[in-house]
Design brief:
The chain is mostly helical. It has 2 domains: 38 residues, no CATH class; 37 residues. It is 70% helix and 0% strand. The longest helix is centred in the middle third of the chain and has 36 residues. The chain is elongated and about 85 Å long. The N and C termini lie far apart (75 Å). The relative contact order is 0.04.
């Protein structure tokens, strides 16, 4: 059984790295990396930074919608209490329809 210590493995990794840098494999690595980058550029992708920014915008928008829904529910509740005549109910379970923007 072979007994490798950390120093032996580090030396071996360094030698392999130097051999690869001096060989055609380094050129192949650069070519493959370039091909992958150009292929990914053609796809409709966003960067991680853009994704994170949009996720934050979505979170803030969602929070705003929740606050507005709560305010609307409170206003409807108040209007229902003030404007309800005996025997009538105000159905808030059906949301109003919103026409699509033209």
């Amino acid at each position: 059984m072979l007994n490798f210590n950390s120093q032996t493995l580090d030396d071996l990794a360094a030698r392999i790295g130097k051999a690869i840098e001096a060989s055609p494999a380094k050129d192949i690595e650069k070519t493959v990396k370039s091909l992958l980058q150009s292929g990914l550029m053609r796809l409709d992708l966003v960067s991680r930074e853009e994704f994170d920014t949009q996720a934050q915008v979505l979170l803030r928008t969602r929070e705003m919608v929740e606050r507005l829904e709560a305010r609307l529910a409170e206003m409807e509740r108040r209007a229902g209490v003030a404007g309800t005549t005996p025997g009538t109910t105000h159905d808030t379970s059906v949301p109003p329809t919103i026409a699509p923007a033209e």
